[in-house]
Hints:
Chain A is of the alpha/beta class. Chain A has two domains: 3-44 and 306-421, Aspartate Aminotransferase, domain 1 (Alpha-Beta Complex); 70-302, Type I PLP-dependent aspartate aminotransferase-like (Major domain) (Aspartate Aminotransferase, domain 2, 3-Layer(aba) Sandwich), CATH 3.40.640. Helix content of chain A is 41%, strand content 14%. Chain A has an eight-stranded mixed β-sheet with strand order 4-11-10-9-8-5-6-7, with helices on both faces. A three-stranded antiparallel β-sheet of chain A has the order 12-13-15. At the A-B interface, helix 5, helix 6, helix 10 and helix 11 of A face helix 5, helix 6, helix 10 and helix 11 of B.
Amino acid sequence: MKYREMSREQLQKEKQLLENKYEEYCAMGLKLDLSRGKPNGEQLDVSEGFYTLSMQKPLCMSGNMDCRNYGVLEGLPEMRAFFADLLGVPKENILIGGNSSLQLMFDSLMRALVFGFFNSPKPWLQEEKRKWICVVPGYDRHFRITEQLGFELISVDMKEDGPDMDAVEALVKDPAVKGIWCVPKYSNPTGNTYTEEIVRRLAKMECAAPDFRIMWDNAYAVHDLNEKGDILPDIFAIAKEYGNEDRILYFSSTSKITLPGAGVAMMAASEANRKQILPILGSQTIGYDKINQLRHIHFFENSERVHAHMMRLGRMIGHKFAKTLGTLESLAPMDIAEWTKPNGGYFITLKLKTGSAKRVYDLMARAGVVLTPAGATHPHGIDPTDSVLRLAPTYPSHEELQLGCEVLSVCVRLAAIETLLK
Amino acid sequence: MKYREMSREQLQKEKQLLENKYEEYCAMGLKLDLSRGKPNGEQLDVSEGFYTLSMQKPLCMSGNMDCRNYGVLEGLPEMRAFFADLLGVPKENILIGGNSSLQLMFDSLMRALVFGFFNSPKPWLQEEKRKWICVVPGYDRHFRITEQLGFELISVDMKEDGPDMDAVEALVKDPAVKGIWCVPKYSNPTGNTYTEEIVRRLAKMECAAPDFRIMWDNAYAVHDLNEKGDILPDIFAIAKEYGNEDRILYFSSTSKITLPGAGVAMMAASEANRKQILPILGSQTIGYDKINQLRHIHFFENSERVHAHMMRLGRMIGHKFAKTLGTLESLAPMDIAEWTKPNGGYFITLKLKTGSAKRVYDLMARAGVVLTPAGATHPHGIDPTDSVLRLAPTYPSHEELQLGCEVLSVCVRLAAIETLLK
């Protein structure tokens, strides 16, 4: 029965039942973490052949080049081809980084501040005001970078097909608006994928800032939960139609393919962008870790093996998503929440009654279940409606997740009743 | 016989002999590279147990932490202890990076430009003028960073005991002078080590810029060629005596201990510096590659093994230094050059007659032997006296080095005679 159709008395009674249940959970001394988009150890074991690989000769060679030594600023040709194949991005546009795509994003914006882009009127640090579009709910670490670097963060709503493009198109008429964060596939934390129309509007929109940049963080490019995953349109190809390929800075990594701690990150950019970036990158480093690039190459051998590997991981994660969604489904009759049902990625977004996300987070925390803090999905950690929670089902074990979901169900219901009884 | 005591006729005759010899070398179609401070494959083989290490459990664990996953911004405690032990720097001051200490240096200066240091009047990019002290001959990649980042580079001579401190002390009275590059042990390319007096003067000097920084690149900290290596005084301890520990940014790496392409870099800084750096670093990355940190830990086990490892490498490099120095000794009777005789590191500096370094470089190149370009040891690639060449004996094989040295001997003599006959 829908909670809001219950009488006060019915609600009071239900509340008492839930409170009793809640105290039982609290007494269990749980210590569960559903907070971060981290793979579970079982997932990491799937990559065992990667990190146990013995890199003796000839495996440490790339052609005639000894990869143990210095050099190869752009990354090994094999690794560039790996990502080109995986992402459908031209190999010549690809630069290989270290173990962190976040670092490549941060470094890109630091370069923009100090040098500007090739088509910038001036270095961004010298702009009187700089603003950045944040699609919400979104990824806290993205928002933190632009906050740290002194951008005013402007929220735009995520809709089912991608960012609210009417809002984006209006905002980019302001020349102080320099860019937008996008996780275009299985977006963090909503799990949806931008449609062709959205990608096209992003690629073709008229920006007042000549050096506007789309930070295209395709972190979940091949992270489907089942055989029929979402299809993300090729933004480079579409942007080219409008002569706007310089607008795209494209990022990805193997963090959630092999190991988060020891994967390989990449960045793809147009020829004009690369021409400006490479000399600066060449001052920053002689080259990233090539041996780890080769480990990936030898572990995967071909793209069929990547696909099989991702399907294995997808099945593991899929069970956890199913369990979490099952719990949420059990809340449907009460009509107290909405949630996303992604085909891939690492997150589910749970939308609660206005003003109750923080309450659910606190209840969960007191019962020993850590969620991503309420507000983390919004700039400056403030969700103005206090209604969004990000659920990350991958890290806990099946048993832990089962328990965590049960506690979540109780807390969501309890908070909803509290709101109704106010 | 000294060349400058020869008659013109004697010189002409000697020149003819040398030219014939030179043409013989040219006809051999040599392809030798004595240009970069790269280890030879034989050296890299000494680390074989490192890059063939299978990182299955429990080796991928640090205590209870699974290092395959995200996290640990400052680096693993074991790796921080490793560097603390190796360098005599307090463990709590140490941050672990990726595979490149150059990157940590570049990133430090980028942060200074965008944010300033904690004791900066303003972000360095907003300073009207910024200047940087470069000890010459010095390391081209250092100079390139500060050149790229818009500093005016000011040369100060390297003396036997370290930088010309009278000159440095005079320069730092200018508040626009923001820092100095130092390779304090087995300096690149002179191979000398700063004495206690020099280190003390650097630590205690009065700087007009409150945020003056010494970029202390201790790249060759344990890279002795024999049992009795040079001793570098502890700059952190000395700076502390004067309350100037915030002045030091200390860098090192295992690039020339294990692998240049896949080593681990570190940075050490005072508590006040770290306090400012960490939140920014935490926006840049979730953490560097911990599995590679663990590979180092498990490969070396204890500091005796590091010592034995470095002695093995030292003996290999020592033979090559001996061969190179032997060739240079054979030039002594002609009194046409001077050179350094380091106890460690990767380089020998060859000082020729004024105006002949570029000529020797060109002659060598035509004979198929690549040297570090003349001028590379100076800011903007310009050696005002055109007299300095950097020799890097490690990369070629013994046979290649033997040949390279023979060609060098002929080219140095030929260029000297050309100068005398002018």
